[in-house]
Specification:
Elements: H1 3-21, H2 29-44, E1 48-68, E2 71-73, E3 76-77, E4 84-93, H3 96-100, E5 108-111, H4 131-143, E6 147-152, H5 156-159, E7 177-181, H6 182-189, E8 195-215, E9 225-231, H7 241-257, E10 267-272, H8 281-289, E11 297-303, E12 313-318, H9 322-334, E13 338-340, H10 349-353, E14 359-364, H11 365-369, H12 389-405
Parallel strand pairs: 4-5, 5-6, 6-7, 9-10, 9-11, 11-14, 12-13
Antiparallel strand pairs: 1-2, 1-8, 3-7, 4-8, 8-10, 12-14
Helix pairs in contact: 1-7, 1-12, 7-12, 9-12
């Protein structure tokens, strides 16, 4: 298949995922429409498909408000938090040490400063949960406040480009919470000790979502295989172009590019659901389904953040065998638009690395180098206007060339 044909397919897939479907938060109808579209394309390319049902929650809000003594403050419902309508004394907490010494029962707690500096890992997140985050959550739950108000700065490293960011994004954390800009928090500090009225019209809704797996033919449980992955879900409030409609598009392009490939190792394409969701349900389910069989995975190739308009495409290798490294280097040597990228871990290749599998993380050079200061992902700015379609096509053709060499 020539490059212009692949480019037309890429444009079509991205138009559907980002423009026709748009935001693909886990549990939403749009998310289910996206996985149905991916399954349809994979089937049309001749692959055997399988869907895995995931029990999740959808979440919706009609907004939030905070008032005190005639003054109003701009607040937003924390994603996946319970709603509330409370009136209570405001107490301000800036450090964990201060929280340990304070009585917060039945109060509205303003978290600001260092205690609100980075997004807190969800309670039951299986892949990363620092002890200091667990300690903070335990202190808050033991303290039994009526609600939390979280004043946050920008922190691209833990929350993406969104500002302000929800300190808690966790459907398993049952203290109602809202978030605000740090500058708004400075205003609110003047009202500590007074009675505030807080309302958050947020609702959790039991729902379903799906992983989609595709194989060229049945794969035995003892065969070595190559697993190529991309997550289809997006954060709330974003069409998720490079995070991660471009990754799913590369996966769908590979279904065409590799459908006649007679590779030594069978290929499994996995459309994950939940990388941008508090519980990573698709990734957890995949681990459960493959318990004891990760040793049969020769390699994971994960695509996330690919196709940004600036810079080249980045292929970051992790623990490749001599055979894989040789093929990897040959592809890079033949493709000047593809570069060896820096190591990074904030995506689904880490699921495989933690299970002892080699991996290649495919992304954008610019995205990797600006991960801690970018203002794009998890925001409405992550739209088709920032996509370089040539980069998307080059990623797909580079991966196809690499797999074919094996």
């Amino acid at each position: 298949m020539d490059k212009s044909t692949v480019a037309q397919l890429a444009t079509s897939h991205l138009q559907v995922l980002c423009s026709e479907i748009g935001e693909r938060r886990v549990g939403s109808e749009a998310n289910r429409n996206a996985t149905a579209y991916a399954e349809k394309v994979l089937k049309q390319s001749g692959w055997l498909t399988e869907t895995t049902l995931l029990s999740v929650i959808d979440w919706q809000t009609k907004g939030a408000s905070l008032t005190c003594n005639g003054s109003s403050f701009e607040v937003f419902s924390s994603h996946y938090a319970l709603g509330c309508s409370v009136e209570a004394e405001l107490i301000a907490i800036a450090t964990v040490a201060q929280l340990e010494q304070s009585s917060i029962r039945d109060k509205v707690v303003l978290l600001h400063g260092s205690i609100a500096a980075e997004q807190i890992a969800p309670k039951n997140f299986p892949f990363w949960n620092p002890d200091e985050h667990k300690h903070l959550v335990a202190l808050l739950e033991q303290g039994s406040p009526k609600a939390l108000v979280c004043a946050t700065e920008r922190n691209s490293a833990t929350a993406g480009g969104v500002y302000p960011f929800p300190l808690f994004e966790d459907g398993d954390f049952d203290i109602p919470s809202v978030y605000m800009k740090d500058t708004e928090g400075e205003r609110l500090l003047n009202y500590a000790g007074q009675i505030v009225t807080l309302e958050s019209q947020a609702t959790r809704i039991p729902e379903t979502a799906f992983n989609v797996l595709a194989r060229q033919s049945a794969i035995s449980q003892t065969q070595k295989k190559i697993v190529i992955t991309a997550h289809i879900d997006s954060k709330i409030g974003t069409p998720g172009a490079i995070d991660n409609a471009t990754g799913v598009t590369v996966l769908l392009l590979l279904a065409d590019l590799l459908k006649t490939c007679s590779c030594t190792y069978p290929i499994e394409l996995v459309v994950f659901n939940g990388e941008d969701y508090y519980g990573a349900p698709g990734q957890v389910k995949y681990i459960e389904q493959n318990e004891g069989r990760f040793g049969n995975i020769l390699l994971n190739i994960n695509i996330d953040g690919a196709g940004y308009m600036e810079g080249w495409s980045s292929f970051s290798p992790f623990g490749l065998s001599d055979e894989l490294q040789k093929a990897f280097q040959e592809v890079l040597d033949a493709s000047p638009e593809l570069i060896e990228g820096l190591p990074w871990y904030q995506s689904d290749h880490s699921v495989f690395l933690q299970q002892g599998c080699p991996a290649i993380a495919v992304s954008s050079q610019w995205f990797i180098e600006h991960m801690e200061d970018q203002e794009i992902t998890h925001t409405p700015n992550d739209n088709l206007g920032i996509v370089n379609y040539d980069r998307v096509v080059e990623c797909a053709m580079g991966i196809a060339a690499f797999v074919t060499k094996l």
